[in-house]
Design brief:
CATH topology of one domain in chain B: Cytochrome-c3 Hydrogenase, chain B
Largest sheet of chain A: 5 strands, mixed
Strand content of chain A: 15-25%
Helix content of chain B: 40-55%
CATH topology of chain A: Rossmann fold
CATH class of chain A: Alpha Beta
Structural class of chain B: alpha+beta
Structural class of chain A: alpha/beta
Strand order of the largest sheet of chain A: 2-1-3-5-4
Number of helices of chain B: 16
Strand order of the largest sheet of chain B: 2-1-14-15
Oligomer: heterodimer
Number of strands of chain B: 15
Radius of gyration of chain A: 15 Å
Helix content of chain A: 25-40%
Chain lengths: 155, 484
């Protein structure tokens, strides 16, 4: 089973990049054969390109939800993503990209896609490489969750 | 599991928001497009090494990394007083063509095309790439996937990873091409030329042969009679990578031409109290409000702006289609916002033909790909991003560190035009308070045609930007709200 763990975000935009920070730290913690750790700051079709060919994908990204505390971590699966119609003026959503690929007979799509969403206070609108304290605290927790995910997948 | 209302994959960097105000009769009094502001790019850049900027700026945007990469590299060429060798320029332009190929394919088939191929009134759930494939066939879908990937492959062969180009250096590029890579690119490019022609054939059959679509394209709510801007070569042919910025007027005549370093002399920026976005306009004409016409300094960039501001295309097949475009839509300039889509496909064909010329150029395998840099100073870099003219401006100190950095992005150049197009579409299409998804989609079509990059315009990453439309009654009370 080939697994990719993908940290998504823009490390130039503060908390937005927390997924990438987590991926970088995970690299020093995980050396399982069959597990690739990578980072990306893109969505939609480009994201699909990155996870194609793996059996499982674990994505780490930020989420903005009014009813969640900043820095809380939630685990979602792809069916939790609401949209078939793109909500992005530039690219499709990942779920739409996957449906399209499947319609064309693409059999290289991961059978399991898990998403860890770390809640942000607000949209990241200031260029900085610093993370807020609340979001920083989410890092060890998310790392533990992913490590335990990877362990249980192997069992 | 609970329902997630925000797609965590396509991140929310900020809402694009349209506010529509109705009058007592329920017709549109006015409509505004709002963009959130992102701050601190200049401060973030200060003190960084100039030569790091092509990598940093390519990470600003997940959509246009190559455009930022080369606007930045070209700004550094000028800032370090160096002219790259001819082979390096050709390698950059070839890589740039790869980017235009994948980006224009993405926009036409995934974003803009569904409105036409599936239909503007089709249910929202069908107006997407899946609907396109249902209508155009699975084989077209496979070709779309294949050629989008080819564009990316060309870009990544020349530039390292497609989304993280690393090849641009002040004075040249870091990587030459070997024989195997040339053979590989030749094969892909040939296929891309055919695919661009196939896409145009599809556009002719599905859109241009359908009278109702043509009348939609040429209908009043989608007309905007502004100045047009593009980067052109010495023959006034469009060039994505290099040239002079040319502005043409409402008769299609040249109004002025200038280089990047003259930008601040030619363009001013107007600020509106209701928007964070700046509205650039031609200084010599002046700001006359959000109006089109000869007395208003607002201009358009992007595929339609570019075709209007060029006298033709530098490659034969694209030039033939360029002529057909103006013949069909009533001559130069074409003011129909929805004609952006056709213009985009003509540019796709040009990019593929130009890539073919470049990969067959004997100089493309040259190893002379970098010239030594001079003393650091000030530089401007201009390219035509997929969405329009993009300018980077840096000032370096004596050690080559950034003192000042400013980016003027395509969507900022289009800010006035997009705002007016949305307003005029809303005014023309929403009547007597009647708003439903189909009507709203026709308003959105005015904005989608530009392929706007709001996140980028506000210096962020366009991972995702849901569009919110709020409609207010004549008492300024919220009447309806749509979240896309």
């Amino acid at each position: 089973m080939k697994t990719i763990v993908l940290g998504i975000g823009n490390p130039l935009l503060g908390d937005d990049g927390v997924g990438v920070h987590i991926a970088r730290q995970l690299r020093t913690r995980i050396s399982q054969p069959g597990v690739t750790i990578d980072e990306s700051y893109t969505g939609g079709m480009n994201l699909l390109d990155l996870i194609r060919g793996y059996d499982r994908a674990i994505l780490i990204d930020t989420i903005h939800k009014k009813d969640e505390n900043v820095g809380s971590v939630n685990r979602y699966d792809l069916s939790d993503l609401p949209t078939i119609h793109s909500c992005n003026p530039h690219d499709t959503s990942l779920s739409e990209a996957i449906m399209f690929a499947k319609q064309l007979g693409d059999d290289h799509i991961p059978t399991e896609i898990i998403i860890y969403g770390i809640s942000l206070q607000d949209h990241c609108r200031v260029f900085t490489e610093q993370l807020s304290h609340a979001v920083q605290h989410a890092i060890p927790k998310t790392i533990d969750l992913i490590i335990s995910d990877l362990e249980s997948m192997n069992n | 599991m609970k329902t997630v209302t925000i797609d965590p994959i396509t991140r929310l960097e900020g809402h694009g928001k349209i506010n529509i105000f109705l009058n007592d009769q329920g017709n549109v009094e006015n409509a505004y497009l709002q963009i959130p502001e992102l701050r601190g790019f200049e401060r973030f850049s200060q003190g960084r090494r100039g030569e790091d900027m092509p990598q940093i700026t390519s990470r600003i945007c997940g959509v246009c990394p190559v455009a930022h990469h080369f606007a930045s590299t070209k700004a550094l060429d000028q800032a370090f007083n160096v002219d790259p060798p001819s082979a390096a320029k050709k390698l950059r332009e070839l890589m740039y063509a790869g980017y235009i190929i994948y980006d224009h394919i993405l926009h036409f088939y995934y974003l803009g095309g569904p409105d036409f191929i599936v239909g503007p009134d089709a249910p929202a759930a069908q107006r997407n790439i899946l609907g396109v494939i249902e209508k155009a066939g699975v084989n077209i879908g496979k070709e779309v996937i294949k050629h989008r990937a080819y564009g990316q492959k060309i870009t990544s062969i020349l530039g390292g990873k497609a989304t993280h180009p690393v090849s641009g250096l002040p004075g040249g590029v870091s990587k030459s091409l070997d024989g195997d890579e040339v053979a590989n690119i030749k094969e892909m490019v040939d296929s891309c030329v055919s695919f661009a022609n196939l896409s145009l054939k599809l556009f002719h059959e599905i859109v241009l042969d359908n009278e109702s679509y043509v009348s939609l394209i040429t209908s009043d709510p989608y007309q905007l009679n502004t100045y047009n801007m593009a980067l052109v070569d010495e023959d006034n042919h469009l060039n994505f990578y290099d040239g002079t910025i040319r502005v043409t007027d409402q008769e299609g005549e040249e109004h002025l031409r200038f280089n990047g370093d003259e930008y601040y002399n030619v363009i001013s920026e107007h600020v509106e109290p209701w928007s964070y976005m700046k509205f650039p306009y031609l200084k010599d004409i002046g700001w006359k409000g959000l109006k089109d016409g000869k007395n208003s300094g607002i201009y358009r960039v992007g595929p339609l702006g570019r075709l209007n501001a060029s006298d033709g295309m530098a490659t034969p097949q694209a030039n033939k289609e360029y002529k057909e475009f103006f013949k069909t839509l009533g001559g130069l300039p074409v003011n129909s916002t929805l004609a952006y889509h056709w213009a985009r496909l003509i540019e796709l064909l040009y990019a593929t033909e130009r890539a073919k010329e470049l990969i067959h150029d004997s100089e493309i395998t040259s190893n002379k790909i970098r010239n030594p840099v001079g003393k650091p100073g000030e530089g401007f870099g201009v390219v035509e991003a997929a969405r329009g003219t993009l300018i980077h401006h840096y000032k370096l100190d004596s050690k080559g560190l950034i003192k000042k950095a400013n980016l003027i992005v395509a969507t900022t150049n289009n800010a006035g035009a997009i705002t007016m197009s949305v307003r005029d579409a809303a005014k023309g299409i929403i009547q007597k308070g009647c708003v439903d998804d189909g009507i709203l989609n026709k308003v959105e079509m005015a904005f989608r045609a530009y392929d706007p990059c709001f996140a980028c315009a506000t210096h962020s990453l366009p991972g995702g930007m849901p569009l919110q439309v709020d409609i207010y009654d004549s008492n300024k009370k919220l009447y309806k709200s749509f979240q896309k």
